[in-house]
């Protein structure tokens, strides 16, 4: 399945007021797409729309809480009213909570699942209602936590496991009915966004993400690639793929890493804003966070997986050269 060029698309992006969503919105507009931005932060969205239009782009904003089905329906309605419909829907909105599962208030558990899981379910079902008639792409942003557990981010990992199960099931049902809709799950590793700064935090230290950390532009690039050239799933960050493969082979060994994983999620400082943005928007408007360690510039692994034929050609070429060299050596007299 191949979709329209980005410059001919209307793209809806939830969670567009910060992090991956904001980066994706700006990148999509720069590449010529018309964008519909959705988030809870009205003022931030208005500023981003103004920036995009000042640069010659086309954008509209919808204030929405993706955990509410009516709000999500309003996003689709605005896309139809402003641009006549949409071609790609990207579910990015998500939050996290740091702390042991037993210490977290039920209301915080509930709110996280409402945003991360039900926000994705709501967005996907509303999107597919339109896309199954007109064709296009549904792209859900999961996480490496869709395949791995993270102690002290237990409900986040739970929600992302659920997002994977939902996305895979929806994809199969659309295939069964022959719908012209591609479904992609993007699974970022640690990404330099404000996610830790905006988290609900029960720890005694400011939270951070375990290394290595990649820039949000790598995720945005993968999302927009999938909008034109669909792929089933995309890992952003080779380290994430490596950890998932390792866990599949030796799950018990991964479990034993729990103390180290917890330690890697703590900075040395005391918490800055432990309430975070779980129940109300705060600190929106930034694409990146302030991790205390080096951030990778790109992910060579991800770039390669976006162009599998090129990668296979290079691998085949190397294999041919290797076979020729070995063949010549074998023919040499002893």
What's the gist of this structure?
The protein is of the alpha/beta class. The chain has helices at 19-30, 42-54, 69-83, 106-134, 154-177, 216-228, 238-249, 251-255, 258-264, 300-305, 308-331, and strands spanning 10-14, 34-39, 58-63, 88-91, 97-98, 136-141, 181-188, 200-201, 233-236. It folds into two domains: 6-298, 3-Layer(aba) Sandwich (Rossmann fold); 305-334.
Description:
The protein is 48% helix and 13% strand. By secondary structure, the protein is α/β, with parallel strands linked by helices. The chain has two domains: 6-298, 3-Layer(aba) Sandwich (Rossmann fold); 305-334. It has a seven-stranded parallel beta sheet, with helices on both faces. Strand 6 (136-141), helix 5 (154-177) and strand 7 form a beta-alpha-beta unit. The chain starts with 9 loop residues before the first strand and ends with a helix.
Helix % is 40-55%
C-alpha-based Rg, rounded = 21 Å
Find the CATH superfamily of the largest domain. NAD(P)-binding Rossmann-like Domain
CATH topology label of the largest domain:
Rossmann fold
CATH domain class name of the largest domain: Alpha Beta
What letter string, H or E per element, gives the SSE order? EHEHEHEEHEHEEHEHHHHH
Largest sheet: 7 strands, parallel
Low-confidence parts: none
Shape annotation: globular
CATH architecture of the largest domain: 3-Layer(aba) Sandwich
Distance between the ends: 54 Å
Strand order of the largest sheet: 3-2-1-4-6-7-9
- Write down the domain tally: 2
Q: Compute the average pLDDT.
A: 93
Beta-strand percentage range:
5-15%
């Amino acid at each position: 399945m191949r979709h329209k060029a980005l410059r001919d698309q209307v793209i809806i992006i939830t969670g567009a007021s910060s992090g991956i969503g904001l980066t994706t919105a700006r990148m999509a507009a720069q590449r010529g797409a018309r964008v519909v931005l959705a988030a809870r932060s009205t003022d931030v969205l208005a500023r981003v729309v103004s920036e995009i239009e000042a640069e010659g782009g086309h954008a509209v904003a919808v204030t929405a809480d993706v955990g509410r089905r009516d709000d999500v329906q309003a996003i689709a309605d605005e896309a139809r009213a402003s641009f006549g419909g949409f071609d790609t829907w990207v579910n990015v909105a998500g939050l996290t909570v740091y702390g042991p599962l037993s210490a977290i208030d039920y209301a915080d558990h509930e709110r996280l699942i409402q945003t991360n899981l039900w926000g994705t379910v709501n967005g996907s079902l509303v999107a597919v209602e339109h896309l199954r008639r007109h064709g296009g792409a549904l792209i859900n942003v999961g996480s490496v936590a869709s395949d791995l557990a993270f102690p002290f981010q237990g409900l986040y990992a739970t929600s992302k496991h659920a997002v994977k199960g939902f996305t895979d099931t929806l994809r199969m049902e659309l295939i069964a009915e022959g719908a012209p809709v591609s479904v992609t799950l993007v699974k970022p590793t640690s990404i330099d966004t404000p996610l830790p700064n905006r988290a609900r935090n029960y720890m005694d230290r400011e939270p951070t993400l375990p290394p290595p950390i990649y820039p949000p532009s790598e995720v945005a690039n993968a999302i927009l690639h999938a909008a034109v050239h669909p792929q089933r799933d995309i890992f952003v960050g080779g380290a994430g793929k490596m950890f998932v493969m390792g866990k599949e082979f030796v799950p018990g060994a991964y479990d034993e890493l729990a103390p180290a994983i917890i330690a890697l999620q703590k900075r040395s400082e005391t918490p800055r804003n432990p309430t975070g943005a779980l129940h109300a928007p705060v600190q929106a408007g930034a694409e990146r966070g302030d991790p205390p360690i080096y951030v990778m510039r790109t992910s060579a692994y991800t770039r390669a997986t976006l162009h599998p034929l090129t990668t296979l050609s290079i691998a085949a070429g190397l294999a041919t050269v290797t076979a020729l060299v070995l063949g010549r050596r074998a023919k040499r007299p002893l």
